DNA sequence: TCGTCACATAATAAAATGCTTATATGGTTG
DNA sequence: CAACCATATAAGCATTTTATTATGTGACGA
């Protein structure tokens, strides 16, 4: 196991990515289970390209991995990321994150996916 | 003791404020000890007004309190803030935060203050 | 009382952010 | 092959962020 190398600037980059309600929710949801892109377009009240661009930021930071299957793209937190271990701990600090995630996941109502 | 009320949007606001290297460092330093504004102008390679504007954001979120004494303004994390309990936990998640804070505090080299 | 010190505020400019609509892409299905 | 579906990318735009320089303010000390 390699030693994690991270300076405070990289930590700030992670906080910055999490400093948006939509992305924080996405991360918290993926912390619970693998999610399809369509889950996110279902959950959040914004256009599909807006969701896609938030995902791009998560990808650029190396936070997520994808698995394509038929029509759908399934997203997970990237186990190889140096941030991977931090994420559950950061989410755990947020009061009522569990309830919020449960609510969001319940509102992903596609039957033909996920 | 009142129950903390916080939705995910407010948590995102906190992450956003911490999503800047300078402010994250300031918060981590104040998590260690009370700091003077001059500590920050010493530590960070930017103008005094830039430091002042970062502090304004921390104030606007209600994250800090001040104590004036002679020339100097001493800053602490605000115990009344709903975020107060979260901060040490969030800082604890950042690898090597301790070493970084120690380095920064060591570089605050005023002898007539703090 | 006048200059100085720590700090805040104003004004401004450059860059980044986050949305929108329109369009492209690549696998799927008929 | 052709239409379709999930998703990405491009382009445009308003807003926000973050720095800089210049200036204001109020406490302190000679």
Can you describe this structure?
Two copies of one chain form a homodimer. With 114 residues, chain A is of the alpha+beta class. Chain A has one domain (8-112): Arc Repressor Mutant, subunit A. Chain A has six helices and three strands. A three-stranded antiparallel β-sheet of chain A has the order 1-3-2. In chain A, strand 2 and strand 3 form a beta hairpin. In chain A, helix 2 (21-32) packs across helix 6. The longest helix of chain A is centred in the middle third of the chain and has 13 residues, at 48-60. Chain A is globular, with a radius of gyration of 14 Å. The model of chain A has no long low-confidence stretch (mean pLDDT 93). Chains A and B meet through helix 1, helix 2 and helix 5 of A and helix 1, helix 2 and helix 5 of B. Chain A binds a DNA duplex (30 and 30 nucleotides) through residues 20, 22, 36-38, 41, 46-56, 68, 70-73, 113.
